[in-house]
Amino acid sequence: MDKKFIISGGGTGGHIFPALSIANEIRRRYPEAGILFVGALGRMEMEKVPAAGYSIIGLPIEGLQRKIGFRNVVVVFKLIRSLIKAFKVLRSFRPDVVIGVGGYASGPVLRVANSLHIPTLIQEQNSYAGVTNRLLAGKSRKICVAYQGMEKYFPTDKIILTGNPVREEVIPQHPDREGACLFFTLDPEKPVLLVLGGSLGARTINESLLAGIGRITQAGVQVIWQTGRLYHQRMLDALAPMDPLIRCVDFINRMDLAYNAADVIISRAGAGTISELCLIGKPVILVPSPNVAEDHQTKNAQALVGAEAALLVTDRVAPEKLVSEALSLLQDGGRKSVLGANCRKLALPGSAASIVDEIIKLTNGG
Questions:
Q1: How many CB atoms are closer than 10 A to CB 41?
Q2: What radius of gyration do the chain's Cα atoms show?
Q3: Roughly what angle, to the nearest 10 degrees, separates helices 271-280 and 13-29?
Q4: Can you tell me the distance from the alpha carbon of 146 to that of 123, in angstroms, rounded to the nearest whole number?
């Protein structure tokens, strides 16, 4: 296939990792296909996409500020420049399909593509659709979603339930908890709590865990703790005189083994993370970040809570309740089994393949 595809969006790993998974699936099926990314200058995709072996063009776009001021005048001018640049890129590259994964850059690129009558497809990761995707939905051909009930945001006849593509390397290939525990030099006979705050870290999760670390170790619970690089040294300093049951790292390179070792998981509620957790099928306590657009992490978490597939502890009450909730869950075998089983029911494996199926249909006029 000598077709060409533009994948646009980014800003966070939650947008970038699905985008790369889609590109990898296209490349796997059609090695000769042309793939070009369009992102936002200065954002994470400008580093991650080339590192994955793909070309990317950056647009000078940024988000509107909530406070009315001169800065928003600059933002409007950048939007106009981005629309012009998007037009030039599309006319030059001539893609057969444009895929939007959310983030600043997807807006101007898909808007221009629609005006040029190039088929567009949206991949919406969250249970609460972002403003950009809602505005683009009217003229997009297909909208791939990860949650049921998205009809309240998008035209029903365009919605396809595909799930979110995940990083395949983090999904355990075989259930070997004992081997995973030994990798982290932990005792397979004792419970393991896995704590995730993202690559940068989550201050509330880290501080809540640190405040209750004595209770955790007294209960004989072992911890694999990804602090994030911003908080790692401070956590290490605080843990120096503590029990050796804690594995404190800034980033977990073998996430597949960490998932295998875990009995209970504490995590933020980004869309990509939730998709991974559903495939893992372990009991999880979600602590949604309050510092995201439209509070979409809370809405993602509530979708799982409504299916009895996860517990939710808000960021505000986490300092008082997170550790108690984790210890209680670790001791409740029945509750763990129910949460894990229900979480697994929500999993949608093969998401990247399903999305690419829909993309290829568009190249054939579907």
A1: 16
A2: 21
A3: 60
A4: 9
- Look at the block and give the residue holding tokens 């999880």: 284
Strand partners for 245? none
For 274, half-sphere exposure in the C-beta direction (CA atoms, 13 angstrom radius) is 32
Domain containing residue 81: CATH number: 3.40.50.2000
| Block residue for tokens 């597939």 | 309
Predicted TM-score (pTM) of the model is 0.84
Condensed to tens digits (0 to 9), the pLDDT of residues 132-180 reads: 889 999 999 999 999 989 999 999 999 999 999 988 888 888 889 999 9
Within this chain, do residues 124 and 230 fall inside the same structural domain, yes or no? no
Scan for tokens 């299916």, then name that residue: 307
Q: What is the pLDDT of residues 237-250, one digit of tens each?
A: 888 766 678 998 88
* Structure tokens, 311: 């517990």
58 and 157, same domain (yes or no): yes
Which structural domain range is residue 27 located in? 4-165+350-363
